[in-house]
Amino acid sequence: MSMPDATQQPLTPPPPDATPTPAPTPPPGGTPPPSATQSSALAITALVVGIVAFLSGLAPFWGIIAGAAAVVLGVLALKKQQSKGMALTGLILGAVAVLTSLLTTITLVAGVGAINAARDLDRHVTPSVAAEEPADDETIEVAEPSEEPAEPAAPAAPAETAGQSNAARAAENYLRVMPFSRTGLIGQLEFEGYSTEDATYGVDKLGADWNEQAAKKAQSYLDVMPFSRSSLIDQLVFDGFTQAEAEYGVTAVGL
């Protein structure tokens, strides 16, 4: 039996087949990290809306709405630290669109208001041509000049003087405080220094109901002391009321 050769190397078993290392699995309940596209969704949306708003910025109202949306989206994208370039671009384009559309809207509204005002003014100022033109079958009569001389125009009423105006105001103030007869109020104004003409003008200008004043005067006397019918009538006549006014006033208070 032969001995093995000492120089011959011992045989070693072949290495086992290499198996692929499994990929690490996410922890239970976890979510995979967002992709670059998902992390820039708001920034991309802000950029797209900003471009649309900028291109339609001259449209009234619409540019304001779209531009405001782009600004809001751009701010949200910046807060979430998404693509700063796209977010800022969308925000700036949206702001420009808002300003442009706002100016266009103001100009449009002002123009419409000016047109409506011009139409209203034209309706009030422009005379009706149809009303001025005579009908085809209507004959136009020319008035012949009158041989009689024209009557002179009545003189204009003189303007109210300062004294008359002040007398009227003073008479009104007195009647607000207490009742007066016509002659009694004229006498009171004369006592204040007004002329008889001014005092009479001021009292008559009021157009007061002297029967009503007599009734108020009679009631004021009865509030202080009792009177008979005849004595109260005499008192009112003494105050300047006429006999008829005095009797009316006493009857009005129940005597």
UniProtKB/TrEMBL annotation:
Residues 11-35 have a biased composition (Pro residues). The keyword NADP does not apply. It holds the Pfam family Lipoprotein_Ltp. Keywords: Membrane, Transmembrane, Transmembrane helix. This is Putative host cell surface-exposed lipoprotein Ltp-like HTH region domain-containing protein. Residues 1-37, 126-165 are annotated as: Disordered. Residues 133-150 have a biased composition (Acidic residues). Residues 164-206, 209-252 form the Putative host cell surface-exposed lipoprotein Ltp-like HTH region domain. The keyword Transit peptide does not apply. Residues 1-10, 151-162 have a biased composition (Low complexity). The chain crosses the membrane at residues 43-76, 88-115. It comes from Homoserinibacter gongjuensis.
